[in-house]
Amino acid sequence: MRLPMVAELNGESDLRHRIRDLRFFEESFRKNVQLALPEGATRSKTDQARLRSSFLAWLESFQSTRHLANVDRKDFICFSAGSMLAELFRHNPLSVSSDTQSGDSASSVWPEGSAYVSYCLGVALTVLEQEFHLTAEIPEYANDPRIWQSFKENVRDNPDLAIPFLDMLLGQSPNWNEPSIAEKRPAVKEKSHPALGN
């Protein structure tokens, strides 16, 4: 899995605030598409209205859950990136035409999905590095085309499943049953209801 935007996003001194700006979101998303698409994916088109709708839906979700950053800031960063990914899948602003159908990489199996994941994963990793000086190793299965095929089928039925998928890539405990409910995340529940006797 390629993460071409991490270096670029790291150039932003305060990404956690910059990403909430529509113009920055649109420009950085388009740049990621240019860098992330595989060879042979020669034509891509981003629907401006859909991209904007995905951003506004994500921002609304972000605002309604941001109080949970006080419970577990690291987990909230991961959840926010996952929510952004879910909205990109829900609104699906990108379409890619490929001259070649071969290849077994994630970007060959599903170039649009790969571009969405690449972008949101890049945002999450950059904010985690800026906030906590954390670097994450992307698991080997992130390059397995079978994982991507399964993910594609599942997220088509329920875009919110993008949230626990991104959690897995970030090393967080996923909530597959109620992925869009931030209060039900394992890290939040653990810190909101500490064990008796502690």
List keywords for this structure.
59% helix; 10 helices; 198 residues; mainly alpha; two-stranded antiparallel sheet; single chain
Let me know the average pLDDT: 88
State the major sheet. Answer: 2 strands, antiparallel
Strand content: under 5%
Could you give the order of strands across the largest sheet? 1-2
Q: Give the SSE string.
A: HHHEHHEHHHHH
Radius of gyration: 16 Å
* Helix share, percent: 55-70%
Number of separate structural domains: 1
The N- to C-terminal Cα distance equals: 41 Å
* DSSP summary: helix tally: 10
Strand tally: 2
Question: Which descriptor suits the 3D outline?
Answer: globular
Structure notes:
- With 198 residues, the protein is mainly α.
- Helix content is 59%, strand content 4%.
- It has 10 helices and 2 strands.
- The chain has a two-stranded antiparallel ribbon with strand order 1-2.
- Helix 3 crosses helix 7 (111-132), helix 4 runs antiparallel to helix 5 (73-91) and helix 5 crosses helix 9 (162-170).
- The longest helix is centred in the middle third of the chain and has 22 residues, at 111-132.
- The model has no long low-confidence stretch (mean pLDDT 88).
Short description:
With 198 residues, this protein is mainly alpha-helical. The chain has ten helices and two strands. The chain has one domain.
